[in-house]
């Protein structure tokens, strides 16, 4: 047979990136595999390799996995993660996690009204107790009426990390 591959290994250990090429290898060697399995007496696999519909699905999946593998390889490399997930200055949002910290009023991204509301929250002892008893989300939701500007800003940021695992 005029195969690109000269030998067929029954078992081989694959590297992680090579695993995406397995289906392409099976598709390229389908004639050789058919000959091998017919001599070995594995008729189940022989019937699959003779089935045109199954071979068409194999070709389709091999093509998709080959494309996914190439996309995966192109996305890898140094500093590629920052291209897709730019760094967020986490320190600018410490005031959400602890509005009672002495450093929380040093946030650079707050307007004057928001900063005033944050200062009012940070000096209020009853709100500090409430903060320790509730989750961060519950606390900021409860602040909507009293401190609408800063609460709205905190909730917009917190909504980015919302989870629905309790919804099921």
Write a compact overview of the structure shown.
The protein has 168 residues and is mainly alpha-helical.
Q: Mean of residue pLDDT? A: 80
Flag low-confidence runs.
none
Terminal CA distance = 55 Å
Output the structural class.
Answer: mainly alpha
Helix content: 55-70%
Largest sheet: none
Can you tell me the overall shape?
A: rod-shaped
Got a strand count?
0
Topology, element by element:
Layout (H helix, E strand, L loop, with lengths): L21 H7 L1 H11 L2 H8 L1 H24 L4 H5 L9 H4 L14 H11 L2 H9 L2 H7 L5 H12 L9
Helix pairs in contact: 1-4, 2-3, 7-10, 9-10
Q: How would you sum up this structure, described in words?
A:
The protein has 168 residues and is an all-alpha fold. The chain folds into 2 domains: 17-80; 90-167, no CATH class. The protein has 10 helices and no strands. The protein has helices at residues 22-28, 30-40, 43-50, 52-75, 80-84, 94-97, 112-122, 125-133, 136-142, 148-159. It is rod-shaped. The model has no long low-confidence stretch (mean pLDDT 80). It comes from Cinara cedri. This is Zinc finger BED domain-containing protein 5.
Distinctive features:
168 residues; mainly alpha; 10 helices; Zinc finger BED domain-containing protein 5
């Amino acid at each position: 047979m005029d195969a690109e591959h000269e030998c067929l290994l029954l078992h081989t250990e694959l590297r992680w990136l090579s695993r995406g090429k397995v289906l392409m290898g099976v598709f390229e060697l389908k004639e050789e595999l058919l000959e091998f399995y017919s001599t070995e007496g594995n008729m189940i696999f022989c019937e699959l390799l003779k089935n045109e519909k199954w071979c068409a699905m194999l070709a389709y999946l091999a093509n998709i996995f080959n494309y996914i593998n190439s996309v995966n390889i192109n996305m890898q490399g140094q500093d590629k993660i920052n291209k897709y997930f730019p760094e967020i200055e986490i320190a600018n949002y410490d005031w959400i996690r602890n509005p009672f910290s002495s450093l929380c009023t040093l946030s650079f991204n707050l307007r004057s009204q928001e900063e005033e509301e944050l200062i009012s929250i940070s000096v209020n002892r009853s709100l500090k107790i409430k903060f320790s008893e509730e989750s961060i989300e519950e606390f900021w939701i409860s602040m909507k009426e009293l401190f609408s500007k800063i609460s709205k800003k905190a909730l917009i940021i917190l909504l980015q990390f919302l989870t629905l695992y309790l919804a099921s």
